[in-house]
Every structure is written in structure tokens, then in C-alpha cells.
Amino acid sequence: MILFDVYPLFDITIEKGKGCHVWDDKGEEYLDLYGGHAVISIGHAHPHYVEAISNQVGKLGFYSNSVQNPLQKQLAKRLGEVCGYDNYQLFLINSGAEANENALKLASFHNGRTRVLSLEKAFHGRTSLAVEATNNPKIIAPINANGHVTYLPINDLEAWERELAKGDVCAVIIECIQGVGGIRMVTKEFYAGLRALCTKYNTVFICDEIQCGYGRSGKFFAHQWLMDSTADAPDMITVAKGICNGFPMGGVLISPKFAPVYGQLGTTFGGNHLACAGAIAVLDVMEQEHLVENAEKVGNHIVSRLKELQKEYPVITDVRGCGLMIGIELAVPYKEPRTRLVKEQHCFTGCAGTNVIRLLPPLCLTMQEADDFIERFKAVL
Question: Which keywords does the record carry (predicted)?
């Protein structure tokens, strides 16, 4: 049997990692400004995380959700305290797509509707309804194209109000900082207006924080940059990626307005003992090492340095982002500079669209490592 070949791959085999660095099978070291696609939140092979995972798998890696799992309750309590949503409920699953799928399903149970509004250039996952809410026809199979979703422009509140006023919208789902969409942020005015309209028209308001959340923006959630009060909170918040530093896990934070019903949602692997132990360790490290604050500080420094480079190199047409989620828009396709960053400068980055280099490093990135990246990027420019 061979692998189903759907990924274009660099000819590099990564064997180990530490902090914001990884090493290939030839012993070559790379600076990691990609974080495994924003998944590595506290750094590769953090000793506290390794110890927590190792201890738990030595006792019990998995048992079903038919029995008590105190680790789930411990994680829910800790997460609520850290993120500021201690009155919300937590449903644990395995991935970001699954988180969005369950959030949209719960919204439809709540108001009985089937239509969804999503942003142009949105990316919400590759499962049934999540992929339909993703604005990329190349990855929506005919079986998924069921006409549930209307895509609307970012920050155009009038366009959204016209659709919401029809009274048939089940849910609005947005990334407050679009990842695949090129690091574009929702404005405070748009966010507040959309939140109010969802309340007015009995539409469920979902913030997809799978990539932009979990401390990456410099606040625990990106939408918290846009809120004036707790009245502006989303009805549901979806998380994954950084929640368990590489172990597959996702979650839905659900407001008190939703009452749970036995059997309404379910999962086999979600919230397993090993994942919960890892996720608790991630929160330990984030708090002890002040990684949310570090993301804001180091992210601001990188943006400032990139804007200085922009004055020197007009091939940089825009620099935007928040915390350690940064987009560098180029006047040329990203492919050559990104490839040269990997092959010549031994530095991993992400990408978006055709012209945007995307930075998604671990939240423990230091000022020295940030400056190191700038020098490597400058060499490519």
C-alpha cells in the first residue's frame, strides 16, 4: 500500500524539535516560524508537556465517555478561568473541523434553521458542513454543495444585515483574523454590529478561533480585541490547533443559553484521558511562561521590523497581523521566497492565497529568534 498523494511536500524529513527549532534526519537545524500550521503553541517537546503526556499514557491513555473522566472537568475549569468564559460549557472533540461541525449542528438544533453566513475567503475545515462554510469550491465535493451557505465580504455590515433580515439564518460563523484568507482582521465596528444583528434576528453567532485563538493574537481569543463588554461575547467559540500542542484535540465553548440534551452530540475519541492531560499541561505552561503576553510583545516587534524592511524592499506590499499571526503580502507569488527561506535559510513559514507569507510560530518565540528570522528573510529579499 502507498499513501494517497494529496499533499505537495518539501523533500525534508523532520525528526525532532525543541522550542522554536526543528531538526531533519541529516541533523540540519531549522527555525520554525510555522509551528506545524499554528498547532505548536508552547514549543516543541516542552519538558512539562512531555512529562504530563508520558505519565498519563503510562496509567491510562483512553477509555470511553461512558464513565467519569475527572481530567475533562479539570480542563474545563482551567480553560474557563484562563480565557474568561468560566460560565460557558465545554464539548471536547478531536479537530477544528469537527468543532465547527458540532457548533453548526448545535445552532441548527437551537433555532431549527439551516442557512449559514460565512466570510468570503473563509476556511472552517474539510468535513461535511464545515467545508461547505469554507469559501473554496476546489475542496467542496458535490455531495457537500447543499446550498446552506452564503459567503459575504469582510467588514461590510450592510451586506450581512440584508441577509440576516430575511429571518432564516441559522448561524453566522467568522474567523476574527482570517488565516487561509490572508491574515485579514474583522474591524471592531463590524464585530459589534454583527453581534447585535445576530441577537436581533435569533441567529447563533460563532467565532472560529481554531487558528487565531488560544493566545496567538496576544489575547486568549482574537475576538477579545473587538469586545467592549461581555454582552459582545459569541454564542459559541471553536478551538483546536494550539489546545494540545500537536496531540489531536478540539473543543466548542458553548454559552449558557444552550441546554445540553443526552445524545444530541457525541464522540468516540474526544476528551480522552491522554488529550486532556496534554491540554492541561499546555495551560500550565501558557500561564507560567506568560506566553499570551509574549505573543503580543514579540509579534509587535516582528511587525515593526517588517514594516522597516518594507521601506527598503518594495516587493513587500503590506504587513498585517496581530500577535504571532502575521501576513507578509508580496508583489510576487510567495512560492520562490518561501522555498528559498526553507532551502537556503533553513526557516519554515506558512503561506496564504498566492502572494502572502504567513507566520505562525510557537508562542514561546523570543526576541532574538524574531530578529534571527528578520535577517534570514532579508537575505532572501
Answer: Aminotransferase, Transferase
Max Cα distance, the chain (Å): 61
Question: What's CA 11's distance to the chain center, in Å?
Answer: 26
Reported CATH class of domain 14-46+296-380: alpha beta
Every domain of the chain and the residues it spans: 14-46+296-380, 48-288
End-to-end CA gap in the chain: 42
Cα–Cα separations (whole angstroms), residue 205 to 24, 100, 110, 231, 330: 43, 12, 12, 12, 33
CB burial class (10 A; 0-12, 13-18, 19+) of residue 141? exposed
CB 321 within 8 A of CB 303: yes
pLDDT digits (tens, 9 = 90+) for 20-77: 999 999 999 999 999 999 999 999 999 999 999 999 999 999 999 999 999 999 999 9
Q: Could you tell me if residue 47 is left (phi over 0), alpha (psi between -120 and 50 degrees) or otherwise beta?
A: alpha
Assessment of whether the complete model's pTM goes beyond 0.70: yes
Mean pLDDT along residues 235-247: 98
48-288 fold: Aspartate Aminotransferase; domain 2 (3.40.640)
